[in-house]
Amino acid sequence: MLFLLYQEGPSTEGIFRRPGSAKACKELKEKLDSGAEVDLACESIFVTASLFKDFLRNIPGSILSSQLCDKWISVMDQGNNEEKIKSIQRLIDQLPRANVVLLRYIFGVLHGIEMRSEENQMNAFNLAICIAPSLLWPPVSSTPDIESEFTKKISSLVQFLIENCCRIFGEEITSLFGEI
Fold first, then answer.
1. How far apart are CA 94 and CA 65, in angstroms?
2. Which of 34, 59, 67, 173 has the largest CB neighbor count within 10 A?
3. What is the pLDDT of residue 179?
4. Architecture of domain 1-174 in CATH?
5. Phi and psi (nearest 5°) for 44?
6. CA torsion 73→88→8→10, rounded to 10°?
């Protein structure tokens, strides 16, 4: 899924913003859940992107860990970019290894898409708005106003992560998928 998003995402206008067909998403998810072999290249990239966001939303406790939610949110209140990056790296060190590996690939994809934002209309801000709610959510439900404020804060964090992913995850993030 990520490889396909890495390949096709940068040249797809509105990737992660435009939803895939609900029927196609449901059918593909059922096939994947049943263990059936699926050729994602035959599916709409929007279906793949929608299904990937759904996968992220179903990670128990979120990929960034709801237990660290307050710490993630407070990162953007810190001083300069260097302090923010160091805080983010300390938080990443507290995540399970599988989460860190997946995050590196996710931000490798998002970076590739953002680098061609003039073509696909998905700059770091737009990507963050679309993907942030799938990466972190509060451990308990709250009022719509509090959730709205939370979404703004986590989107700001994800935008910062996209814009600084090479400094946070290392320059090799740009070549995780090899040369295509």
1. 9
2. 173
3. 56
4. Orthogonal Bundle (1.10)
5. -65, 140
6. 80
